[in-house]
Amino acid sequence: MIIDLERRINQFYFSKKVFRPTDISLYVWDDIVPIRIIHRNGSTQAYTIKNLRYVFLDRTKPLPTRRVEIAHEIGHAILHCGNQLQVDITWRLKQEWQAQQFAFAALTPAHMVYPMIHVGDRCDRLSFELAETFCVPVDFMASRLDDLRGRVEMMCMDHVAEKIEDYVFMR
Fold first, then answer.
1. Which of 120, 154, 116, 124 lies closest to 142, judged by CA?
2. Residue 108: which domain range?
3. Average pLDDT over residues 101-111
4. How far is CA 2 from CA 5, 19, 86, 159, in A?
5. Beta strands 35-40 and 52-58, pairing class
6. Burial zone of 68 (CB within 10 Å; 0-12 exposed, 13-18 middle, 19+ buried)
7. DSSP code per residue over 106-159
8. How many CB atoms are closer than 10 A to CB 77?
9. Is the pLDDT score of 143 beyond 80?
10. What's the confidence (pLDDT) of residue 141?
11. CB count in 10 Å sphere of residue 74
């Protein structure tokens, strides 16, 4: 699901001419999801009323945090339907995880992040630099890098497993 989500977001961004981190604007999603953002003081909350999603965004939070919260809510609007408060906790946690994956892919697309990673980069410094580049919080970027590192390790392990299978079958 994650790879497919990334692929779909990449295709969508390509169609909207979003090629660089500075091109990423959450307003490009307006065509897909009708969302009204209302800036106010107080915690961020989202409600759906007559097929329109309202996000009450805490204006006192820094811009990078607000971007993550909006992307997370867009993820819910695109990936889920119904009242999340009426589902059991296991399903709700899964939906929260999915919305977070959407936010990762929408704000820090893998195809833009990977070329910025170089062998020998220190994770803390890289998290800080990329957080600034993508206008996201440092902890969000660090989590995203962990997520991507896990994917790279899985691809490497799959590659090693294929090589072992090739070796075994050649004997």
1. 124
2. 2-170
3. 95
4. 5, 20, 25, 19
5. parallel
6. buried
7. HHS-HHHHGGG--TT--HHHHHHHHHHHHT--HHHHHHHHHHHHHHHHHHHHHH
8. 21
9. yes
10. 95
11. 23
CB 54 within 8 A of CB 38: yes
| Residues 6+ positions from 118 with CB-CB distance below 8 Å | none
H or E segment and range at residue 68: helix 63-79
pTM exceeding the 0.85 threshold for the entire prediction:
no
pLDDT score at 139: 96
Residue type, 16: K
Q: Are 30 and 78 within 8 A, CB to CB? A: no
Return the structure tokens found at 122: 């220190």
Residue 161 and residue 145: Cα distance in Å, rounded? Answer: 24
User: Both tokens of residue 103?
Assistant: 């936010």
- Token pair belonging to 130: 């990329």
Residue whose entry in the numeric block shows the structure tokens 């490009």:
28
Tally the domains of the chain: 1
